[in-house]
Specification:
single chain, 6-stranded antiparallel sheet, alpha/beta, 25-stranded mixed sheet, 1118 residues, EC 2.7.11.1, globular, Phosphorylase Kinase, domain 1, Leu-rich_rpt_typical-subtyp, Transferase(Phosphotransferase), domain 1
Amino acid sequence: MAAGESALSGNRRNWELLVFYTFIIIGVLGMLSGVQGLSKDGQVLLDFRSEVTDEANVLIDWKASDSDPCSWSGVTCDKRGNVIALNVSSLEDNFAGSISRSLGNLTKLEILDLSKNNLKGSVPSSLSSCVGLKILDLSSNKLGGTIPVELGDLPKLSLLNLASNRLEGHVPEELGQLSALSRLDLSKNDLQGLVPTELSNCAKLEYLDLSNNNLSGAIPPSLSRCSKLETLFLGSNSLRGDIPATLGSLTRLQMLSFSNNELTGAIPAELGNCSEIEFLDLSDNDLRGSVPRELGKLRKLRVLWLQDNMMWGSIPSTLVNCRVLADIDFSRNNLTGIIPLEFSEMKSLVSVVVAENLLVGEIPRSLSELGNLTTLNLARNKLNGTIPGGLCSSSRLSTLVLSHNLLEGEIPVDLAQCSSLLQLRIPSNRLSGSIPKGFGWLKKLQFLDLGYNDLTGVIPTDLGSSSSLIELDLAGNLLNGTIPPGFGQFPPLLKLNLSSNSLTGGIPSGIVNSPTLITLDLSRNALSGPVLVNVATTVPMESLILHHNQLLGNIPTELGFFQQLTELNLGQNILNGSIPSNLGKLLNLRALTLKRNSLTGTIPAQLGNLMFLEELDLSENHLSGSIPSSFNNILSLTRLNVSYNNLTGVLPHRLVSILQESPSSFIGNPGLCLTANLDCVSPEERRDHDDLSAGAVASIIIACVFAAIVFSVLVVISRSYYRRGKSRYPEKEAESENEFRIFNGESFSLNDVLKSTRNFDDAYAICKSRNCTIYKAELPTGKVIAVKKLVFRRDDLAEEVFSTEAETVGKIKHRNLVQLVGFCRWQGLRFLMYEHLPEGSLSDVLHRHKQEAPNFFFDWKARFRVALGMARALAYLHHDCTPKIIHRDVRSANVLLDTNFEPQISDFGLSKLIDSTTISTPANATPKVAVTYGFIAPEFAYTNNITEKIDVYSYGVILLELLTGRRAMDPELPENVGIVAWARQFISSSTNPESILAADVYDNCDARGKSQMLLVMKVASYCTNHQDTNRPTMKEVVQMMEQFDRSSSSSVNASRRASSGPAAFMPTTSSSAVVEYSDSDTDSLFLDVDPYTTDDDYATADDRSMGSFTHSRSGSLH
């Protein structure tokens, strides 16, 4: 019994101990769970937070003491507490830092959205461990590096968005393994390489955006296998080749953009099968051919952008079937024909832009029936007729641009009542009549440009009180009367151009002091009175242009407070007094012109403070004293003209280089000396001379000879050193022996070129000259190119510079420039590859065809088209390229013609290529590019002065060739007499100056053509002016030629003085020349003017009607 009780007592004790230890264990576990309560996923998120900055404490509720992260901001969990979504996209202040690799440990993660932050670093490859991931959005950050190939291992991924980062490298082909992928956006990065064909394996893909990268190669035709594709954006890359016709099978496609690439070929008609497409953008490529009629099958199309291509043909009338089409842009192509009348049936049209094409005919009046139209831009075509009324009948029209056409008649009155109008631009037409009243009352009108028409009457006073106008341009008309006093007093007017009219009276007191005006141009009028300046507040004006008026009095000293001025031109007025020293406070000034006034006194030394000054013209005044030595501080000064004053003393050394480039800029100052060691003789002792002293000239010659000797020695030494260095490193030569680069989507190889020319065999040479040989290469694709072999020694070339410059030239595109297809280096030689034009050169057509094709007739219309196209091309090179390109060898043999006899200038940039690849070429060294005698500007022969004006001179010579049919150096002319000298002599001695023109051409012209030929002869005289600074710019030439093209149909004639014969080319020593024009006397359009006119005189010759041309001259520039 006792034993039993003892056993029972022992069991009870054991049981009590078991219960005791059980409670202890439970307590310990409870304590442990309190210490390590945060789940594993929570720890991962804390690791993420530790690598980002959260200054706004957006993640303040992410606490380590929590048992799980399911209640944290941006976190979503499943029922088991696993994190399945992390979305911290743009939470208040954006996060910075990097993406933690530990996020790959969130094994149940389905959604990761870290978009719109400032995250840097790379995309973690560890994310591939999140095998359940469906959405990965890291867009709009600053992530770099490459796209991890491991992302291709995410089998459930349906959305991948890495757009707007800084990712580099290739698009991984492994992404083609994402069988569930429906949306892929890698746009706006720095990705390179090809578009992977493997992406076509993504059968569920609906959205693909690879735009705004650096992708190259062709568009994979296999993308057509992505049959569910609705959006395809590949724009803003460097893709080449044709648009695959197979894409026409994408019947679900709604959005398609291949813009801003280098695609070639025609638009596939098969795209008309994409019946669901709403947005089609193929702009800014090199697409050729016509607009497919099949696009009319796209019944849901709303936007059609084809601008900036090379397409031709007419606008298809089938587009009328696109009933919801709202936005059309066909601008900057070569489209011909008329504006389809069917447009009026497209009631949903909102914007129609067909600018810069070759459209003809009238603007359909039925366009006024388009009730939704807000934008109509038909600029730079060949449209004629009148501007139809009613375009704003719906009161929705906001933008109307019809500039640079052949439109006639008056401005519709209802346009001045169009309350919705935001901008109206109709300059450079033939519009007549007065400006309708009411434009100044339009509350929304901000831009009004009516310039360069034939508008008459006065400026409506309501324009002076407009409360909305930002820019107003009425330049180049026949307006008279005074300037309305309200101009400048009503903000927000920023730009006002009333130049080249016949305005009289004074300048309104408030206009110069406007608190908002930035640009004011009142030049070329008959304004009188003083320049009234009363600076009460800060004046923001940057450009003040008042030249060619009759302004009196002193130059206001208050102009020194116009701190923002970059251009001040008060030239050719009647201003007197001295030059205010306050002008030295205009520290932003880049151009200052005070020429042809009656200014006295000395040149203020304070002008030396203008550190950004590039052009200064003080010529033809009565200034005395010396040129301040402070001018040595103006390092930016490139053009200075102080001719025809009374200046004396030593020329500041900084100006010697300008003297060497343009000696005529200093003539008429006999007291000027080059150095202090020479005698500065008085004007009385040198009154029979108009040039620098003999000692000065001798100094210049000695300096030039010395420089030439030093240069020769340096060249010999450098070449010897270069040869020794080259022989020492033959292996480096072999590494860079060959190079091949093509542009604009062309697809051929160096081997193709070598095979098609048999390694540049002479049998394939079509032209040889002293500095190049040209080969004709017919490629396997059937394309024919011209390959120019440049002839110069290898040791004259810097390899990298040549390649860089060639690539730069290859990017230059203009319809009147021969396109550089590519370049290559092969066996130490340099080759440039161009488009081949079948009609040969202008020289061939003008001269060689006379014998080879006696029945061929090159009429004046074709010749004028050549002249105008050349002018536009040269103006583009001079004024629209940065830096500007000077051709240096403009000649008829370098002007090639296409099948429509449209000119294309070749060899542009060639001089830059050669000059930039020479070793240590001095600035004053003779250029290596061979120029052609007869086309060379005079200053080029004796000063090597390289400015764009040498191209202008050469252009003038070609005009003479077109006009007379003679060569620049014609064998029928006296020995060593060029066409320019012959023309001047012929006209000065002939009683029938028109006989200088090619008889067969002139006799086959109508009245308009004959008038046009005589007008172009004037342009030739301007361009071949002996003094380079007195020639027009090519931009001015284009304006004159375009005006001739528009207005030469009107009878334009000149009455000349009986005392002298026609003298367009004849120098004259008269102090002034006055020519008046009338609508009679049809036999004399050559002007009795000094050919040495200045740049500003060209626009004075009002070539639209040849109104009246008067200029004053004191002294001769012989």
